[in-house]
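User: I've been going back and forth on whether these two constructs are worth ordering. Before I decide, could you fold them both?

Assistant: Sure. I'll take them in the order you sent them. The first construct and its structure tokens:
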Amino acid sequence: MSANIQQWTVEKPWLETHCLLGEGPFYEESSGSLRFVDIRNKRLHYVKVAEGPPSLKTIQLDVCPTVTANIAGVDPQERIAVGVKYGLAVLDVEKETYELIQPFEEPVNERLRSNDGGVDPLGRFWLAKRCTNIRTLSTYSTLHLLFIKSDILDLGAVYLMDAKSREVKLPNMTIPNTPGWSPDGKTLYVTHSNAREIYAFDFDIESGEISNKRVFYNHDGSGEPDGFRVDVDGFLWQAVYGEGRVIRIDPSTAKIVGEIKVPTKNTTCVHFVGTELVITTAEDDEGEGSSRKNGGHVFKVDVGIRGLRLNDFKL
């Protein structure tokens, strides 16, 4: 690692949550709470940041939640938007019940689920879907990939959704991941995890149209880029699944300028709480020692810069 790259090392977890697949961290400014999901356990967790682990509470659902967003004009302690297995839903936080407001398709496809998502500057929800039973393609042989390609590898997509409509914006993907925007809202980034690439698009804020697709960043490590957030200077903080780290990427050069190391391999996503970066992880049931012990826990570290506030969904 270059001496010019800023480095942080996190030795202990902040929350020992034992998530099977921790994901989707989101900070509620109004309540001072961090919420995040455990996709495989079908759980939504909340913790008061100022109080820490003793304040942890959990909502158990009957469907996997994958990503959440605040709804414009609605108290997030009452209702939030949530990506679930079949599409976009609204969760009644108090009743712990949800209503599916826009499915990916009808009838629903049991082999698919939502993955990650984000809300654009005008409040439209961009939600990814992927095949349920693929985590990382690095575990498959070339022969196996050839066999399954026509069956499931191109079923993933990114949708533009609200309660009234849905539109496929990026079809024929395998594991599409976080959509996120530059500070001026004119560039959309989307991670394609199994391709180990982050795409960039010119983004028309008013229409929601995307153009000029290009590969912004190509990852040459053994892991796969998973979820990310953008800071106020436009740099991407990208979790790398399988490498136990988060990398900070310069938007003008696509070079790595920072790295956070955590003591478990499967880093999944990040989120800013002030100048602290919260990092979610997944279990490492095939690992050993520290990585296995700390898999599924939540970490945080002060990186000295703030992130962009995520947009509210206009229901």
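The second construct, handled the same way:
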Amino acid sequence: MQNRLWATTAIVVAAAVAGTTGVAVWKATQGHQVQVAPAYPGQPAVTGLAAATGTEPVDEPALAARLDQLAANPDLGQLVGEVVDATSGQVLWQKDAAQPVRPASTTKVLTAAAALLTQAPDSVLTTEVVAGGDGSIVLRGGGDVMVSAEMIADLASQVQAAGLAPTAVLVDTSAWAGEEFSPEWHREDIEAGFIAPMQPVMLMGARIGGDSGDLPRSATPALDVAHALADALGVAAFGFGPAPADAEPVARVESAPLLQRLRRMMLTSDNIMAEAEGRAVARAVGVEASQEAAARATLDTLAGHGFDTTGVELKDNSGLSDNDLIPPQLLTSILQRAASEPQLRPLLQVLPVAGATGSLATRFEGQPGRGWARAKTGTLTTTSALAGTITSATGHVYAYAFISNESSVLPARKALDELVSGLRG
């Protein structure tokens, strides 16, 4: 994840080296054994997780000395972190691990864990169309922010097959509550491609001009979906409007299963998807799907499963807020549990692999951790972070979280890659 200031810097560097209740209408023309990843050889998909093989005790003094030296790199700014044995949970190294700090997108580890603890991996989100009044149809958003052109075409075909000839297409956004755009975020990040007003149905993350990447986002994502469906049906009028109570759907499409959504969210560090998954957690536990309630539901879910959330401040589910605070020891405890508990184990499968996939595809160049480390990245203007797992050369599995604040992004990234690679041995 990035914010506007870091994105501007990155562009310069790259150049150098390269909800309503009324109706508003618009007109338009396995078991419990610790699991870790094998080395990633560069194929397009990781096929599975292999069991840890280390049998000799960890050489703790040597590991600590190696990490102490790497952690002293001044490029890491204000560093906090922790390393634990993924098999036993024993803390092997730590630096202010209980201190809550700005986590950036490692916040998404909490969001993904809460999602897995509240919903089945194959659970889906449903977008429905119902008959409205005065010849209209109403698209009822259900939380899917990755509606595709093919899904719009499918909905249109179902509406036509039902014998309806609508005069207008409305969209109902009442599935989510509260403010659509957090005061914790920056409006310029909409055009920068990092976030959009949070409405419970969007076309491919509200992107303008494509289906992936940090493209500019729409300021009217739900209205865009109504517009697209109206176009597919040859209808000129579209807008907002409530679905009639207890109306039966005449058309419906389903999102990708939860595990696929989390994989895309984590690989690309998609803020909009993270905020949507937070609201899905809120709905799963029976509270309103607002940003504030989603953050509370995330922490309540984790606390209810035995995680210590002391000192955590969640202002959102993506980590885009500068005021999120998470101690590294919470991240390592989640990752350590994921290494051995089936319900959380998919969390490790959706993490980027160093030098191979997602936000780590171009990282760890020439480093021993390349292909062996999995991690969620975190990036804000003065924050860089990595939280994940790695298999050592002796077959031990470590869960780690390192967060660097008050540092320059590119030097801190390199230093973090070196620090994580130090766990390889």
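Notes on the second construct follow. The first helix runs from residue 4 to 17. Confidence is low (pLDDT under 50) at residues 4-48.
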